[in-house]
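Researcher: We're teaching a course module on how sequence relates to structure. For the next exercise, students receive a sequence and then see the predicted structure as C-alpha cells, so they can try to spot secondary structure elements on their own. Here is the exercise chain.
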Amino acid sequence: MKTHLKYKVYGFVSFAVFLFGCSTVNTSSLSNKLEIKTSSSPTPLGISQNNEGKFIRQEGWKIPLPEKKEKMRVLERDVMSETGNRVKRTITIYNPIGDFFFYIDHPTSNLGIQMMSGLLQLESIWEVKVKEKIYSYTVIVRKAVPNAQTDESILTRHEFPYRYFDIDGDGKFETLVADDSDILVPSWVTQ
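Model: And here is the predicted structure for the students to work with:
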C-alpha cells in the first residue's frame, strides 16, 4: 500500500515539475521547422490502435529527421529477437544541429495523450538497427506551447520519447509506440 502511495506522490511531483518547469524560445523566425499532419478525427482514416496501445498507420509515419545532425554516441547490446535468438542491436544517437521544431497532429491527441501532438522540439533521435537494417527510431522531444501574446513558445523541461517501428521490413515505419514497452527485434531484421 505504501508503494502505491509513493507512486502517486511521484506522479504528482512529476506533473508539477512538468507544469511549472518551462523555458521560452522564439520559434517564429526558425527556418528549421517541419510540419507533419494527419487527420484529427476520432478514428483517422488509415490509422488504428491495437490492444497493446500501438498506433498503426499502413502507409507509414513520417519520421522527423533533421538534415543537419551530429552523431553523439553509439551503443551496442545483445537483445532478444522475435525468433528467440540473441542478436547484437546498435543504437546510434543523433542530436540536431541547431533548434529543430516540427508540428505534428497525431491521432493520440484525441485519446488524451496531448504530449505527442502540436509543436515539438526535437532533442535527439535514436536510430536502432541490427545487421545494418534500421527497424526503429526513438524520437526524444519537448512540447512547445505557443504564447498567443508573443512570437515565443514555451518549451517544457520534460522530455518524452515516442518510437516508430518497421515491423514487417517493407521500409515503412507503420507502428508508433507512445510508451516504454519493449518490442522484440522483428524476425525480418535477423534474416
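Model: If you want an answer key for the exercise: The chain has two helices and eleven strands. Residues 1-43 have pLDDT under 50 and may be disordered.
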